[in-house]
């Protein structure tokens, strides 16, 4: 079965303020010391002295321990170990400036994220602007899995970064707190910043196949009309499109008897191809609401892949039958923003 292309989404661009509030947010217990840091919920985030935090890394603590051991051995053994300890400690005291300069002045700004499905991997666009080269950056959202992150270097200028994350619920979702960190160039200290990008991302219900309610199939009158139309064609009704020379394999049901009586020539009736009836979908009332929306999401995606016509009835909202990328986006958006 052919698969539709990606959901049409806007090219990453800067969003105007104010941003709409997300419908659903999951509380998250921040680890220490991030829980003590005030949240920065702004469209842009510039890294400076008030937004950067620094602590020794694991290698840095080992470095300090080595300095202490060398100092003790040098004092007790009257050797040059104490001098070496002072040199290593001096290098450690220089590391905060070098590590902080790797991030200071970098500016982040959230873009316009494209919609996607819950439970699937999405990307959140962030515009990074820098006048200098930045080394060994690591960016991830605190809600996402540890392996979902962006790592790399930044050259001077502007660059769009696609930060991966995986939403668990539908609606207007924000990925939560973003942590950008680096231990370059010496690896002795870890310098980081925290930012809450406010631009929400539209998340459709997860695609899980299952039963849905098709209103057009449940109407007995419509079924009778459909069966009646098929029987009329089989019996040779008068609702034909054109005449053509009759072929023996077509049988007598398609023979134009009036033309045969008038002219004595045998013509067969040609009927217009019946148009497929559009699907009018609705949530299955026997299922929980969120599960019914997930089944609708999968069914709509399947019909779009087959290029079939479909509509949607969702409470008081009705979307007329149609096909194409615009219809797919309308229906999925209605499912994503449906009241819980």
Describe the structure.
The structure is a single chain. By secondary structure, this protein is of the alpha+beta class. It has a domain at 34-54 and 103-204: Sandwich (Immunoglobulin-like), CATH 2.60.40. 29% of the residues lie in helices and 26% in strands. The chain contains seven helices and 18 strands. A five-stranded antiparallel sheet has the order 2-11-10-6-7. Strands 1-3-5-8 form a four-stranded antiparallel sheet, with no helix packed on it. A four-stranded mixed sheet has the order 13-16-17-18. Strand 6 (134-141) and strand 7 (150-154) form a beta hairpin. Helix 1 packs antiparallel against helix 2. The two termini are 33 Å apart. The model is unreliable at 1-11 and 218-238 (pLDDT under 50).
Summarize the SSE layout with pairings.
Blueprint: E1 44-46, E2 53-56, H1 58-77, H2 81-101, E3 107-110, E4 116-117, E5 122-130, E6 134-141, E7 150-154, E8 157-165, E9 171-173, E10 178-182, E11 189-195, E12 201-204, E13 213-214, H3 215-218, H4 220-235, E14 242-245, H5 257-263, E15 267-270, E16 279-282, H6 289-305, E17 310-314, E18 317-322, H7 325-336
Parallel strand pairs: 4-12, 16-17
Antiparallel strand pairs: 1-3, 2-11, 3-5, 5-8, 6-7, 6-10, 9-12, 10-11, 13-16, 14-15, 17-18
Task: For the structure shown, list the relevant keywords.
single chain; four-stranded antiparallel sheet; alpha+beta; elongated; disordered N terminus; five-stranded antiparallel sheet; Immunoglobulin-like; 18 strands; 340 residues
Question: In a nutshell, what does this entry contain?
Answer:
The protein has 340 residues and is α+β, with helices and mostly antiparallel strands.
